[in-house]
Amino acid sequence: MKTDILRVDSFGIDQVTIRIAADIIKSGGLVAFPTETVYGLGADALNPEAVAKIFEAKNRPLNDPLIVHIADIQDLLRLSNEVYKITLDLVDAFWPGPLTLVLKKSQTVPSIVTAGLETVAVRMPDHPVALSLIRESQTPIAAPSANLFGRPSPTTAQHVLDDLNGRVDLILDAGKTNVGVESTILDLTQTPFRILRPGGVNLESLRTIIPDIEPYNGNKILAPGMFIRHYSPKAKVILVEENGSVQIDKIKMLASEFAVQGYCIGIIAKEENKDKYSDFNVKVLGPAKNLNLCAANLFSILREFDKEGTQVIIAESVKEEGLGVAIMDRLRKAQAKRKQCLTKC
Length: 345
Ligand code: TXA
Ligand code: MG
Hints:
Rossmann fold; 10 helices; alpha/beta; binds threonylcarbamoyladenylate; 18% strand; DHBP synthase; binds magnesium ion; 4-stranded parallel sheet
Protein backbone atom coordinates (compact mmCIF):
# COMPACT_ATOMS: atom_id res chain seq x y z
CA MET A 1 0.00 0.00 0.00
CA LYS A 2 1.24 3.49 -0.80
CA THR A 3 0.85 6.03 1.98
CA ASP A 4 -0.21 9.52 0.86
CA ILE A 5 0.27 12.64 2.95
CA LEU A 6 -1.96 15.68 2.56
CA ARG A 7 -1.37 18.95 4.41
CA VAL A 8 -4.38 20.57 6.05
CA ASP A 9 -4.44 24.05 7.51
CA SER A 10 -6.36 23.85 10.82
CA PHE A 11 -7.43 27.48 10.46
CA GLY A 12 -8.73 27.18 6.90
CA ILE A 13 -9.62 23.58 6.27
CA ASP A 14 -9.80 22.54 2.62
CA GLN A 15 -12.99 20.48 2.40
CA VAL A 16 -11.76 18.72 -0.74
CA THR A 17 -8.94 17.17 1.29
CA ILE A 18 -11.34 16.19 4.06
CA ARG A 19 -13.64 14.58 1.47
CA ILE A 20 -10.76 12.50 0.08
CA ALA A 21 -9.96 11.30 3.61
CA ALA A 22 -13.62 10.64 4.44
CA ASP A 23 -14.04 8.56 1.27
CA ILE A 24 -11.18 6.34 2.44
CA ILE A 25 -12.84 5.90 5.86
CA LYS A 26 -16.22 5.17 4.23
CA SER A 27 -14.69 2.54 1.97
CA GLY A 28 -13.05 0.74 4.90
CA GLY A 29 -9.53 2.20 4.67
CA LEU A 30 -7.18 3.75 7.24
CA VAL A 31 -6.53 7.48 7.70
CA ALA A 32 -4.10 8.91 10.26
CA PHE A 33 -5.32 12.29 11.50
CA PRO A 34 -4.34 14.92 14.06
CA THR A 35 -6.13 15.37 17.37
CA GLU A 36 -5.24 17.87 20.09
CA THR A 37 -3.39 15.11 22.01
CA VAL A 38 -1.54 12.88 19.50
CA TYR A 39 -2.16 11.63 15.95
CA GLY A 40 -4.75 8.84 15.67
CA LEU A 41 -4.97 5.91 13.25
CA GLY A 42 -8.60 5.98 12.18
CA ALA A 43 -11.09 3.56 10.64
CA ASP A 44 -14.89 3.38 10.50
CA ALA A 45 -15.76 2.24 14.04
CA LEU A 46 -18.90 0.48 12.83
CA ASN A 47 -17.10 -1.59 10.19
CA PRO A 48 -15.36 -4.57 11.87
CA GLU A 49 -13.20 -5.36 8.84
CA ALA A 50 -11.90 -1.81 8.70
CA VAL A 51 -11.20 -1.88 12.44
CA ALA A 52 -9.28 -5.14 12.05
CA LYS A 53 -6.88 -3.30 9.72
CA ILE A 54 -5.94 -0.94 12.56
CA PHE A 55 -4.73 -3.84 14.72
CA GLU A 56 -2.81 -5.29 11.77
CA ALA A 57 -1.17 -1.99 10.81
CA LYS A 58 0.02 -1.31 14.36
CA ASN A 59 0.88 -4.91 15.29
CA ARG A 60 -1.48 -4.32 18.17
CA PRO A 61 -2.81 -7.27 20.17
CA LEU A 62 -6.55 -7.78 19.74
CA ASN A 63 -7.10 -7.62 23.50
CA ASP A 64 -6.27 -3.90 23.60
CA PRO A 65 -9.53 -1.97 23.01
CA LEU A 66 -9.80 1.20 20.91
CA ILE A 67 -11.20 4.66 21.61
CA VAL A 68 -14.16 5.72 19.45
CA HIS A 69 -14.03 9.36 18.32
CA ILE A 70 -17.22 11.33 17.71
CA ALA A 71 -18.07 14.86 16.58
CA ASP A 72 -21.67 15.01 17.74
CA ILE A 73 -23.31 14.20 21.09
CA GLN A 74 -26.03 12.25 19.27
CA ASP A 75 -23.39 9.66 18.43
CA LEU A 76 -22.69 9.12 22.11
CA LEU A 77 -26.29 8.00 22.49
CA ARG A 78 -25.82 5.51 19.62
CA LEU A 79 -22.71 4.02 21.19
CA SER A 80 -24.14 3.68 24.71
CA ASN A 81 -27.66 3.30 26.06
CA GLU A 82 -26.48 4.17 29.55
CA VAL A 83 -25.66 7.85 29.45
CA TYR A 84 -26.52 9.41 32.81
CA LYS A 85 -26.48 13.01 34.08
CA ILE A 86 -22.91 12.77 35.34
CA THR A 87 -21.78 11.74 31.85
CA LEU A 88 -23.50 14.76 30.35
CA ASP A 89 -21.97 17.03 33.02
CA LEU A 90 -18.51 15.74 32.08
CA VAL A 91 -19.28 16.13 28.37
CA ASP A 92 -20.42 19.73 28.98
CA ALA A 93 -17.29 20.54 30.93
CA PHE A 94 -14.61 18.79 28.86
CA TRP A 95 -15.76 18.00 25.30
CA PRO A 96 -14.45 18.57 22.82
CA GLY A 97 -11.23 17.80 24.69
CA PRO A 98 -8.73 15.25 25.98
CA LEU A 99 -11.11 13.23 28.16
CA THR A 100 -12.14 9.68 27.18
CA LEU A 101 -15.20 8.25 28.92
CA VAL A 102 -15.70 4.51 29.38
CA LEU A 103 -19.40 3.61 29.27
CA LYS A 104 -21.54 0.50 28.88
CA LYS A 105 -21.57 -0.26 25.14
CA SER A 106 -24.64 -0.58 22.94
CA GLN A 107 -25.12 -3.31 20.35
CA THR A 108 -24.10 -0.83 17.64
CA VAL A 109 -20.45 -1.12 18.67
CA PRO A 110 -18.67 -4.10 17.06
CA SER A 111 -16.90 -6.28 19.61
CA ILE A 112 -13.52 -5.98 17.85
CA VAL A 113 -13.50 -2.27 18.83
CA THR A 114 -13.87 -3.05 22.53
CA ALA A 115 -11.73 -6.20 22.50
CA GLY A 116 -14.81 -8.14 23.54
CA LEU A 117 -15.56 -5.96 26.56
CA GLU A 118 -19.09 -4.82 27.40
CA THR A 119 -17.81 -1.25 27.70
CA VAL A 120 -16.75 1.31 25.11
CA ALA A 121 -14.31 4.23 25.38
CA VAL A 122 -15.54 7.42 23.67
CA ARG A 123 -14.17 10.90 23.18
CA MET A 124 -14.77 14.05 21.15
CA PRO A 125 -11.38 15.42 20.10
CA ASP A 126 -10.72 19.16 20.24
CA HIS A 127 -9.21 19.51 16.79
CA PRO A 128 -10.97 21.05 13.79
CA VAL A 129 -9.42 18.57 11.34
CA ALA A 130 -10.48 15.54 13.41
CA LEU A 131 -13.99 16.91 13.85
CA SER A 132 -14.37 17.70 10.11
CA LEU A 133 -13.14 14.24 9.18
CA ILE A 134 -15.59 12.51 11.54
CA ARG A 135 -18.52 14.64 10.31
CA GLU A 136 -17.68 14.13 6.64
CA SER A 137 -17.25 10.37 7.18
CA GLN A 138 -20.73 10.24 8.75
CA THR A 139 -19.60 7.57 11.17
CA PRO A 140 -17.76 7.40 14.50
CA ILE A 141 -14.03 6.76 13.98
CA ALA A 142 -12.12 4.19 16.02
CA ALA A 143 -8.57 5.39 16.51
CA PRO A 144 -5.66 4.39 18.69
CA SER A 145 -2.52 6.51 18.65
CA ALA A 146 -0.93 6.21 15.18
CA ASN A 147 2.32 4.52 16.25
CA LEU A 148 3.54 0.95 16.02
CA PHE A 149 2.44 -0.92 19.14
CA GLY A 150 4.62 -0.07 22.14
CA ARG A 151 6.34 2.96 20.54
CA PRO A 152 5.90 6.55 21.74
CA SER A 153 2.70 8.16 20.44
CA PRO A 154 3.15 10.43 17.38
CA THR A 155 2.86 14.17 17.80
CA THR A 156 3.72 15.01 14.16
CA ALA A 157 2.78 13.53 10.78
CA GLN A 158 6.46 12.62 10.30
CA HIS A 159 6.33 10.43 13.43
CA VAL A 160 3.34 8.62 11.90
CA LEU A 161 5.20 8.13 8.63
CA ASP A 162 8.29 6.84 10.48
CA ASP A 163 6.19 4.05 12.03
CA LEU A 164 3.41 3.36 9.54
CA ASN A 165 4.69 4.12 6.04
CA GLY A 166 3.03 1.60 3.70
CA ARG A 167 0.55 0.54 6.41
CA VAL A 168 -1.94 3.41 6.21
CA ASP A 169 -3.71 4.85 3.15
CA LEU A 170 -3.47 8.53 4.04
CA ILE A 171 -1.94 10.81 6.67
CA LEU A 172 -3.55 14.20 7.23
CA ASP A 173 -0.76 16.55 8.32
CA ALA A 174 -1.81 19.56 10.38
CA GLY A 175 1.52 20.10 12.14
CA LYS A 176 2.51 19.39 15.72
CA THR A 177 -0.24 18.46 18.20
CA ASN A 178 -0.92 20.80 21.10
CA VAL A 179 -1.22 18.66 24.21
CA GLY A 180 1.39 16.03 23.33
CA VAL A 181 0.23 13.29 25.73
CA GLU A 182 -2.88 11.17 25.24
CA SER A 183 -6.33 11.76 26.70
CA THR A 184 -7.27 11.04 30.30
CA ILE A 185 -9.37 7.87 30.47
CA LEU A 186 -12.17 7.86 33.03
CA ASP A 187 -14.20 4.71 33.69
CA LEU A 188 -17.80 5.56 34.56
CA THR A 189 -18.89 1.90 34.69
CA GLN A 190 -17.35 1.21 38.08
CA THR A 191 -18.18 2.88 41.37
CA PRO A 192 -16.34 4.82 42.49
CA PHE A 193 -15.39 6.14 39.06
CA ARG A 194 -11.78 5.41 38.19
CA ILE A 195 -9.05 7.20 36.25
CA LEU A 196 -7.56 4.43 34.08
CA ARG A 197 -4.92 6.62 32.43
CA PRO A 198 -3.76 10.11 33.41
CA GLY A 199 -3.68 12.45 30.42
CA GLY A 200 -4.65 15.81 28.96
CA VAL A 201 -7.37 16.61 31.55
CA ASN A 202 -5.80 16.78 34.99
CA LEU A 203 -7.13 15.62 38.36
CA GLU A 204 -7.81 19.13 39.61
CA SER A 205 -10.08 19.85 36.62
CA LEU A 206 -11.93 16.53 36.96
CA ARG A 207 -12.59 17.35 40.61
CA THR A 208 -14.67 20.38 39.58
CA ILE A 209 -17.26 17.86 38.36
CA ILE A 210 -16.46 14.77 40.51
CA PRO A 211 -15.06 16.21 43.77
CA ASP A 212 -14.14 12.86 45.33
CA ILE A 213 -12.43 11.22 42.35
CA GLU A 214 -9.28 9.39 43.50
CA PRO A 215 -5.92 10.18 41.87
CA TYR A 216 -4.66 7.75 39.25
CA ASN A 217 -2.96 4.77 40.85
CA GLY A 218 -0.12 3.76 38.58
CA ASN A 219 0.70 0.63 40.57
CA LYS A 220 -2.41 -1.15 39.42
CA ILE A 221 -2.90 -2.02 35.78
CA LEU A 222 -6.49 -0.99 35.45
CA ALA A 223 -7.17 -0.62 31.77
CA PRO A 224 -7.06 -3.63 29.50
CA GLY A 225 -4.15 -3.42 27.13
CA MET A 226 -2.31 -0.93 29.34
CA PHE A 227 0.74 -3.10 29.69
CA ILE A 228 3.49 -1.72 31.85
CA ARG A 229 5.95 -1.21 29.04
CA HIS A 230 4.42 1.22 26.64
CA TYR A 231 5.46 4.49 25.07
CA SER A 232 8.97 3.12 24.73
CA PRO A 233 11.78 4.39 22.61
CA LYS A 234 14.34 1.87 21.36
CA ALA A 235 16.84 3.15 23.92
CA LYS A 236 16.92 2.02 27.51
CA VAL A 237 15.27 4.72 29.66
CA ILE A 238 16.38 5.55 33.18
CA LEU A 239 14.19 7.97 35.11
CA VAL A 240 15.94 9.66 38.02
CA GLU A 241 13.27 10.90 40.36
CA GLU A 242 13.63 14.22 42.21
CA ASN A 243 15.54 14.20 45.46
CA GLY A 244 16.84 17.71 46.06
CA SER A 245 20.05 18.59 44.25
CA VAL A 246 21.21 14.98 44.30
CA GLN A 247 19.25 14.41 41.08
CA ILE A 248 21.71 16.26 38.85
CA ASP A 249 24.75 14.59 40.40
CA LYS A 250 23.17 11.18 40.08
CA ILE A 251 22.32 11.75 36.41
CA LYS A 252 25.87 12.95 35.67
CA MET A 253 27.31 9.95 37.43
CA LEU A 254 25.09 7.48 35.56
CA ALA A 255 25.76 9.20 32.24
CA SER A 256 29.54 9.07 32.80
CA GLU A 257 29.40 5.41 33.78
CA PHE A 258 27.51 4.45 30.61
CA ALA A 259 29.67 6.71 28.44
CA VAL A 260 32.86 5.10 29.76
CA GLN A 261 31.42 1.74 28.73
CA GLY A 262 30.97 3.09 25.20
CA TYR A 263 27.23 3.71 25.09
CA CYS A 264 25.58 6.69 23.35
CA ILE A 265 23.88 8.69 26.09
CA GLY A 266 21.03 11.17 25.94
CA ILE A 267 19.77 13.30 28.81
CA ILE A 268 16.28 14.78 29.13
CA ALA A 269 16.50 17.87 31.32
CA LYS A 270 14.36 20.75 32.41
CA GLU A 271 15.27 24.12 30.91
CA GLU A 272 16.74 25.35 34.22
CA ASN A 273 19.22 22.45 34.45
CA LYS A 274 20.36 22.02 30.87
CA ASP A 275 23.72 23.73 31.36
CA LYS A 276 24.62 21.32 34.16
CA TYR A 277 25.01 18.53 31.62
CA SER A 278 27.17 20.37 29.07
CA ASP A 279 29.42 17.30 28.55
CA PHE A 280 26.48 15.28 27.25
CA ASN A 281 23.81 15.25 24.53
CA VAL A 282 20.96 17.08 26.32
CA LYS A 283 17.43 17.74 25.12
CA VAL A 284 15.22 20.20 26.93
CA LEU A 285 11.74 19.11 27.98
CA GLY A 286 10.71 22.65 28.92
CA PRO A 287 10.75 24.96 31.95
CA ALA A 288 9.88 23.14 35.20
CA LYS A 289 6.87 25.42 35.67
CA ASN A 290 5.49 24.95 32.15
CA LEU A 291 4.30 21.36 32.30
CA ASN A 292 2.10 21.89 29.23
CA LEU A 293 5.17 22.59 27.14
CA CYS A 294 7.01 19.66 28.75
CA ALA A 295 4.13 17.33 27.79
CA ALA A 296 4.05 18.67 24.24
CA ASN A 297 7.78 17.93 23.80
CA LEU A 298 8.08 14.56 25.53
CA PHE A 299 7.32 12.04 22.75
CA SER A 300 9.22 14.05 20.11
CA ILE A 301 12.32 13.98 22.27
CA LEU A 302 12.11 10.21 22.78
CA ARG A 303 11.83 9.75 19.02
CA GLU A 304 14.67 12.21 18.25
CA PHE A 305 17.00 10.27 20.54
CA ASP A 306 16.07 7.06 18.72
CA LYS A 307 16.86 8.66 15.35
CA GLU A 308 20.26 9.71 16.67
CA GLY A 309 21.00 6.14 17.73
CA THR A 310 20.98 6.94 21.45
CA GLN A 311 21.17 3.77 23.54
CA VAL A 312 20.59 5.05 27.05
CA ILE A 313 18.27 7.94 27.87
CA ILE A 314 18.53 9.35 31.37
CA ALA A 315 15.58 11.57 32.27
CA GLU A 316 14.98 14.11 35.02
CA SER A 317 11.61 13.90 36.72
CA VAL A 318 8.98 16.65 36.72
CA LYS A 319 6.61 17.71 39.48
CA GLU A 320 3.61 15.36 39.69
CA GLU A 321 0.87 17.94 39.42
CA GLY A 322 -1.36 18.92 36.51
CA LEU A 323 -0.01 17.42 33.29
CA GLY A 324 3.09 16.35 35.25
CA VAL A 325 1.14 13.25 36.39
CA ALA A 326 0.72 12.12 32.77
CA ILE A 327 4.37 12.93 31.93
CA MET A 328 5.70 10.90 34.86
CA ASP A 329 3.35 8.01 34.01
CA ARG A 330 4.71 7.89 30.44
CA LEU A 331 8.34 8.13 31.61
CA ARG A 332 7.85 5.36 34.18
CA LYS A 333 6.29 3.13 31.55
CA ALA A 334 9.08 3.89 29.09
CA GLN A 335 11.55 2.89 31.79
CA ALA A 336 9.84 -0.37 32.77
CA LYS A 337 12.36 -3.16 32.62
CA ARG A 338 12.69 -5.37 29.58
CA LYS A 339 15.21 -7.89 28.45
CA GLN A 340 17.50 -6.18 26.04
CA CYS A 341 21.03 -6.27 24.77
CA LEU A 342 22.71 -2.95 24.48
CA THR A 343 25.12 -2.68 21.57
CA LYS A 344 27.84 -0.09 22.01
CA CYS A 345 28.32 2.84 19.62
O1 TXA B 1 -5.52 10.94 23.16
C1 TXA B 1 -5.88 9.79 22.92
O2 TXA B 1 -6.60 9.11 23.69
C2 TXA B 1 -5.40 9.16 21.59
C3 TXA B 1 -6.03 9.96 20.45
C4 TXA B 1 -5.71 9.38 19.09
O3 TXA B 1 -7.40 10.07 20.66
N1 TXA B 1 -5.75 7.80 21.51
C5 TXA B 1 -5.12 6.84 22.23
O4 TXA B 1 -5.56 5.56 21.96
O5 TXA B 1 -4.25 7.08 23.03
P1 TXA B 1 -4.75 4.25 22.40
O6 TXA B 1 -5.39 3.13 21.68
O7 TXA B 1 -3.33 4.44 22.16
O8 TXA B 1 -5.10 4.06 23.89
C6 TXA B 1 -6.40 3.69 24.22
C7 TXA B 1 -6.48 2.95 25.53
C8 TXA B 1 -6.35 1.44 25.42
O9 TXA B 1 -5.01 1.00 25.45
C9 TXA B 1 -7.11 0.97 26.65
O10 TXA B 1 -6.23 0.93 27.73
C10 TXA B 1 -8.13 2.08 26.85
O11 TXA B 1 -7.82 3.12 25.98
N2 TXA B 1 -9.48 1.62 26.53
C11 TXA B 1 -10.10 1.58 25.34
N3 TXA B 1 -11.33 1.04 25.45
C12 TXA B 1 -11.49 0.73 26.74
C13 TXA B 1 -12.55 0.14 27.50
N4 TXA B 1 -13.66 -0.23 26.94
N5 TXA B 1 -12.33 -0.02 28.81
C14 TXA B 1 -11.20 0.38 29.39
N6 TXA B 1 -10.16 0.93 28.74
C15 TXA B 1 -10.31 1.11 27.44
MG1 MG C 1 -1.39 4.24 22.15
